[in-house]
Structures are given as C-alpha cells and as structure tokens.
Amino acid sequence: MMRVLIADDEELTRTGLHALLSREPDIDVVGGAADGAEVLVMAAELKPDLVLMDVRMPEVDGIEATRRLRGTPDAPKVVVITTFENDEYVYDALLAGASGFLLKRSRSAEIAHALRLVASGDTLLFPDAVRRLAAARPVAVRADGPPLTARETDVLRLMAAGLSNGDIAARLYVTVETVKTHVGNVLMKLGADNRTQAVVFAYENGVVVPGER
User: Fold this and answer.
1) How far apart are the first and last CA of the chain?
2) Is the domain defined by 140-204 classed in CATH 3.30.870.10?
3) Fewer CB atoms < 10 Å away: N or C end of the chain?
4) pLDDT of 51 above 50
C-alpha cells in the first residue's frame, strides 16, 4: 500500500485529490497539508512514501518544502502538481529533488498511474519542460567522469524522452532491473543527484538533440 500525503493550499483541491486517490485500492491518503511548513511536520509524523506537492503555497512554498524533505533520512518521493506545464516554479522544484510533475487537469487514473511509477523508482519528466529547464537553468554535474557506455547513452536518451523504466526495458529488450542498473550507473558517472539533472545534462551537452525521437 502506497502512503500519500497531499499538499495544496486550496482546500477544494486537497479534498478532490483525496476523494479521487482514495478510490485506488493500493493508495492510502494519510493526510492533507495546507502549506509547506505543515507538510514538513506531517511528513515527519505520518511517514508517507510520496508527497503530492503544490508549488505555490504560503509560508514555506513547495520548492523549499521539497528541498527540506529530500534532505531528511528515508525521505519520501515528491511529485509536484501544478496548473501550468511551463510554471517557472516547476523547474526549481525538479532541481530541488522532485521526481517529476503532473498537471492538475490530469485525470484521476493518470495521477494514480504516475504515482505508482514514481513509487517504483521512475521519474515523470515532460521532455519539452526539461528542454526549457536545460536552457534556462544549467546544473552542475561532472563532465570529467568515466564515459558512458553506448547502452548507458541509449538509456539516457530514452530517459530524456520521458520513458519510464518499464518502457525503456521494452524498447531495449532488457529487464527493468537491468534498466535500473544502467540508470544508477548514469547518475554515478555524471555525478547527478537525480534523473532530472542527468537529463538536463544530456540536453546541455548534445547527448539529446531537441526534436530528436
């Protein structure tokens, strides 16, 4: 059972997401927070597996809350939920350690599926948004580490296309565990903290070309 904490300063949104996700047999919504400060307190108390986080909240916003959460032991994964795909706050949240983002207009089945993907170790990356992130917010990763193998480069390109581990495995005719190993090697060699940073590096350094399929 996946334990989910919802964070949004609009009570109607929290209530709606709670109602939608509570219908899923494998999701347990353990609470709802109205701002980032409350998220931190509730996460420490309730130990969720994942936080569905709005970025625009009073007091402590979702970006800072994500940064603090990801710095704690046994940190929950964070999925940002936002109204607009090109929300500037989303980029900061990704760099702060969020595992991806969803649009508030997404259908309940899409949200539930996305949360399951992240809980299993995947990342939700929208290629267009990450390209803009790469152009606007360079990140510091190692450029002098061990070179990526041809297969690791293939995996990085597919990560940049927004594919899940399962989709990458199917595309490359390997197991999901093999893909996870390749992803771990990519992060280690690039000195990247997360998949988002690795994908930004791919765009910045021409490993992935905008518009490439």
Assistant:
1) 36
2) no
3) C
4) yes
